[in-house]
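We treat protein structure as text, and this decision shapes the records that our systems exchange. Because each token names a local backbone shape, the row as a whole describes the fold. For reference, a complete record is included directly beneath this paragraph.
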Amino acid sequence: MSASALPIPPLAPPRLRRFASMMYEGVLLFGVVFLAGYLFDTLTQSRSGLMLRNVRQVVLFIAIGVYFVTCWRRGGQTLPMKTWDIRLTDRGGRAVSTSRMLLRYVLLWPLPLLSALLIGGIAHLSGWPAIDMLIVLAPFSIFIWTWIDPQGQFLHDRLLGTELHDLRSTPT
């Protein structure tokens, strides 16, 4: 097989477009979290965000997961992913199974949570509480792996055999 006959690996969307999609996603997630929190507070008669805090966090984790998996099941895209021409597929370009979507959602969390823990620890050890403001950077820690990965994919995608495709570079 000649070098020209080898399949070209799919291009991952540029980091800037993935970042823009994440920002748009955050705007939509505000609505998801607000609605889930409102329903939770109504059903439990909570008067404070600290009441049933751990249960509230589990409910919000599930609500956000339902949002992502539901969207990914409809063509591998959320609304921001459609806007920025990004699609989630398996390595063969096929639709991802629901179980892998759920696992992808769960595997999205460890790196940002570890980053948030690291930021909190630095703030505590340094005695500078203002360092806590860097917590807003924790979600972007998932981009670190994209500079190491040969195709620029996220770590959780590499581990699961899923990929984000740049639909702008796909031949028609």
Observations:
- The chain has six helices and two strands.
- The beta strands are 86-90, 162-166.
- Residues 1-6 have pLDDT under 50 and may be disordered.
